[in-house]
Amino acid sequence: MTGLIRMNAEQMRRKGLENAEAKRQREKYYINQMEKMSKHDVGGLYDIRAIKKSKQFEQQKNHYNIEQARSELEDLLQANRLYKFSFETEEFIKRISGREADSYTIRETGKFISDLINEIKVKYEVKE
After folding, report:
1. Which residues, in sequence order, are CB contacts of 62 under 8 Å at separation 6+?
2. What is the pLDDT of residue 23?
3. Are 107 and 72 within 8 A, CB to CB?
4. Whose CA is closest to 110, among 121, 126, 85?
5. In this predicted structure, what is the pLDDT of residue 27?
6. At what angle do helices 103-127 and 66-79 cross, to 10 degrees?
7. Neighbour tally for 101: CB within 10 Å
8. Of 19, 49, 91, 107, which sits 20 to 30 A from 118 (CA to CA)?
9. What is the pLDDT of residues 17-42, one digit of tens each?
10. What distance in Å separates the CA atoms of residue 63 and residue 5, rounded to the nearest whole number?
11. All structural domains of the chain with their residue ranges
12. Which residues, 6+ apart, have CB-to-CB distance to 97 below 8 Å?
């Protein structure tokens, strides 16, 4: 007990006030840090939040969306009155690539089919 220093009521009050002030300073520092982060101040680095909100990110997300690619392929086939060819096209992609179709292979196959259809139309129109 000799190592303990007894404090009177005034000293305890003063120490409590000092502790409370230090706690308020830490809270202010924390709030300032949070405000900096919420303002997207990342020190010149790429801001992920701004990228996710960008129009280009949405376009890329749509480009890599498999359902979007399938829908575009079906629209192409329906526009050329090839209604039942969608399933055969999907099976062809699986057989050639050896895996499930992704957006890239679906779009590339769609481009190939579109070019093929256009070539056939040109050849057919020339012969008439």
Report:
1. 68
2. 94
3. yes
4. 85
5. 93
6. 10
7. 20
8. 91
9. 999 999 999 999 988 887 777 665 55
10. 72
11. 8-40, 57-127
12. 105
Q: Identify the residue whose tokens are 């801001």.
A: 47
Distance CA 88, CA 109 (A): 12
What the block records as the tokens of 71 is 């829908």
Please tell me the distance from the alpha carbon of residue 86 to that of residue 119, in angstroms, as a whole number.
Answer: 20
Q: Which residue has the tokens 């992920």?
A: 48
On the CB side of 104, CA atoms within 13 Å amount to: 2
**Polymer length of the chain:** 128
Tokens read off for 35: 């405000």
65-103 pLDDT tens trace:
888 888 888 898 888 888 888 888 888 888 888 877 888
Q: For residue 7, which amino acid is it?
A: M
Q: Which residue type is seen at 30? A: Y
Residue 99: CA count within 13 A, CB half-sphere: 4
pLDDT band at 2 (very low <50, low <70, confident <90, very high): very low
